[in-house]
Amino acid sequence: MVLLTRKIEFSASHRYHNPNLSAEENRRIFGKCNNPHGHGHNYTLEVTVAGEPDPVTGMVLDLKELKDILEREVMKRMDHRHLNYEVPELAGQIPTCENIARVIWQLLEPRITQGKLHRIRLYESPDLFADCYRNGASGAGN
Amino acid sequence: MTRDALRVELGRRYRFAASHRLHSPHLSEKENYRVFGKCNNPYGHGHNYVLEVSISGKIHPATGMIANLADLDAFVERHVLEEFDHRSLNEDVAALRGKVPTTENLCIEIFHRLKHFPYAKLERVRIQETGNNSFEYAGNTEETTCE
């Protein structure tokens, strides 16, 4: 099995806020991530697909197809958007790194038909990321 | 066919600067140099270590988080960074005395310190010693991998 990883970047704003909690509780739990007008990140998404190289093409999958999937499912939805207001798949959830990673997995997994989606890693910043994968798969990509 | 459950892990990176010297008192001077090369230089040398901590757990519906980052940061600061940052791993870290402070041993030591984090499960510790060397430990002595 070979793992192939494709990386994309998108810029988005968000705010960590739970409307069911008081202003003080929101501030205590989320700190400056709760600042009222939100803030932004350059997110980096690494998508790792597992598969066997095709004997004819030598490829695990057609990278052009993967790029198109990522453009459609992630970039169009999230790039240069406000994640609290403009992404229906995140409605009712706090757009934390963990929740965004999970939503991106749910968007990509059924659409990747060559090879198998192995792991996604979403960096909110260089020092904070969330990994999403199926139990039984290693958390490591490349 | 049932599918394996979806897992989400949170990863956080921390940085600390420390010196070390790779030297075993059980080996002769020549053997130490042969085994460790310039990592055996007598006055030690240093690295900007990058520590990656991965935790898992349920995403809490009220916060959207596996664990509060502030809690994790404070725990790592108290149990690792305070004792390791800007220190000599050979001289200043009691738990590493009697061991060669390789990054493998550092991974294991840091894992044992962090596995008691009360709000999530520690999955693995990965330490980048340089841009070319990194090590990972997931709590099983037979599973330490290095890249």
Give a summary of the structure in a few sentences.
The complex is a heterodimer of chains A (142) and B (147). Chain A is α+β, with helices and mostly antiparallel strands and 142 residues long.
What's the structural blueprint in terms of helices and strands?
The complex is a heterodimer of chains A (142) and B (147).
Chain A: E1 2-14, H1 23-30, E2 39-51, H2 63-78, E3 81-82, H3 97-108, E4 116-125, E5 128-134
Parallel strand pairs in A: 1-3
Antiparallel strand pairs in A: 1-2, 2-4, 4-5
Chain B: E1 6-20, H1 29-36, E2 45-56, H2 69-84, E3 87-88, H3 103-114, E4 121-128, E5 134-137, E6 145-146
Parallel strand pairs in B: 1-3
Antiparallel strand pairs in B: 1-2, 2-4, 4-5, 5-6
Can you describe what's shown?
The complex is a heterodimer of chains A (142) and B (147). Chain A has 142 residues and is an alpha+beta fold. Chain A has one domain (2-132): Tetrahydropterin Synthase, Chain A (2-Layer Sandwich), CATH 3.30.479.10. Chain A is built from three helices and five strands. Chain A has helices spanning 23-30, 63-78, 97-108, and strands at 2-14, 39-51, 81-82, 116-125, 128-134. In chain A, strands 3-1-2-4-5 form a five-stranded mixed sheet. The radius of gyration of chain A is 17 Å and the shape is elongated. Chain B is α+β, with helices and mostly antiparallel strands and 147 residues long. Chain B has a single domain (9-146), classed as 2-Layer Sandwich (Tetrahydropterin Synthase, Chain A), CATH 3.30.479. Chain B has three helices and six strands. In chain B, strand 4 (121-128) and strand 5 (134-137) form a beta hairpin. Classes of the chains: A alpha+beta (142), B alpha+beta (147). The A-B interface holds A 16, 18, 20-21, 29-31, 93-99, 101-102, 105, 121, 126-137, 139-140 and B 3-14, 54, 59, 62-66, 68-70, 123-124, 136.
